[in-house]
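Section 3.1: Structural characterization of target chains.
Under the original work plan, the team committed to producing a structural model for every single-chain target entering the pipeline before any wet-lab resources were allocated. The record below documents one such target. The sequence was received from the expression subgroup and is listed exactly as submitted; it comprises 171 residues.
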Amino acid sequence: MRKAGLSTFALTLLCWPLLAQQAEEKKPPKPLVSYRLELAIHETENEKRINTRRYSAVLEEDGRCRIRASSRVPISSEGKIMYMDVGLSIDCDNFHERDGFVSVSLSFEISTFERPEEQQKPGVGTPPLVRTIRALSSSLIPAGKPTIVSRVDDMTTTRRYELEVTAVKIK
């Protein structure tokens, strides 16, 4: 009887990894959830909306996106030509879905040339000034509801930039 008990115990030890693997295989995989992030950057001046730019990206759990819309502008420095990106940059990271909300880290940067009428000392040969607006936020957004996640005032003008995000679940 003791031999039978030891044999059964030894057989169980040998088969345990196989039994554990079969138990794991029976668990249904977590369904893949995708969302389309609809991003809108609203530009206002003197509290009046003057421009809206729209972008979108599809993200899955732990997904990320990079959106760029810029121009490479040559800059002369000490006799060398270097290039600078001027335009828009949006980054989305750490995307997660929980109970009808999405959590995401968003950053955006907008760089523009200062208009000639805004320059302190306009003149021929005066290098243009570049303005940059940046914002970074980690936000919890209700699915399907447009939500302002960042609002930034331009320090030298009466302009304001708002980043609005809508997370739309893809079925």
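The CA atoms of residues 97 and 149 lie 17 Å apart.
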